[in-house]
Amino acid sequence: MAGKREHSKNFEKVKKFYPKFWSKQRVYNAVTNPVSNPWITPEEYEEITGEKYVPESESEG
To answer: Per residue of the chain (61 residues), what is the pLDDT tens digit?
Structure first.
């Protein structure tokens, strides 16, 4: 299955919710929460929003 990308369990749910029901900030939060098992990956954030994911620690500096 070359080229077929595996997505995290909640990817389709988040993709469906954004932007109609969820703000970009809420999608961003899905990358870091819950801490032990985030809903989506940074790469998936970029795929859903079309913007680069920048961790808060890098954006504050």
So the answer is: 455 679 999 999 999 999 999 999 999 999 999 999 999 999 999 999 999 999 988 765 5
* Three-state SS sequence of 17-61: HCCCCCCHHHHHHHHHCCCCCCCCCHHHHHHHHCCCCCCHHHHCC
Q: Is the pTM of this model over 0.85?
A: no
Instruction: Show me where the domains of the chain are located.
Output: 11-53
C-alpha distances in Å from residue 34, one per residue of 5, 28, 31, 61: 23, 12, 8, 24
Alpha carbon distance 27, 19 (integer Å)? 9
